[in-house]
Amino acid sequence: MPKEIQTNYFPQPPLEGVLIKQDTIRKNYYFRRLEQQARQRAKEIIKDAQIEAQELQKNARREGFQQGMLTALQQIATYLSDSNRALAHWQKKLDKQVREVMSVSVNHPETLMLVLDEWLSGINTPECAVHILFPVSMKHIHSEIAERLNEEWGGMIHIEYHSESTFVFRCGDDIAEFSPVAFIDSGSCKIMKESTSDMNMDCKSISRESVENFITYCRTLTD
């Protein structure tokens, strides 16, 4: 009895029912190699894409942190600038008001009489003539000043005016000079120093709060 011969089935019928063409085998092998290479290349592309995506994410975080730091620095600079600007504004405004009040007081006849009385109290020769040099801006109240001086001083009084802002008193060898400008500068400086200490503390408090806000903001960037 003849043996059963196993039959091979090929995608393409054997040449003349016996053989497969050699170039067909080569083509099948070539296509399989291409497929393997394509799969490998696809894996490499995916891997490279994942690495690139991770790098981009890191860069984005780093750039975002740097931008956040820049924003925070700008924020703290704005806070500090605002507090310093507010302090300077109120100090300037207060100084102006203080100077205005002191200027009115200094130029008031009653104030001038107090200054003159203090000076005259140290003079032991009442019979001596008093020479007074007033700023020309006081000329409009000449009558009032002359009347007050005659009441306070029994001796002779000579009143003259000059273009300077100072008051000059002379009696014999005794001479005194009163400068409203210097008085206002000195008084204003003293008042400002005493009055703005609380304001300085408030502005320092604002600065501390700004720094705390800055630190808190930076912490949120690192979370």
From TrEMBL:
The keyword Coiled coil applies. It comes from the Bacteria. The lineage of its organism: Bacteria, Pseudomonadati, Pseudomonadota, Gammaproteobacteria, Enterobacterales. Residues 32-59 form a coiled coil. Keywords: Coiled coil. The keyword Coiled coil applies. This is Oxygen-regulated invasion protein OrgB.
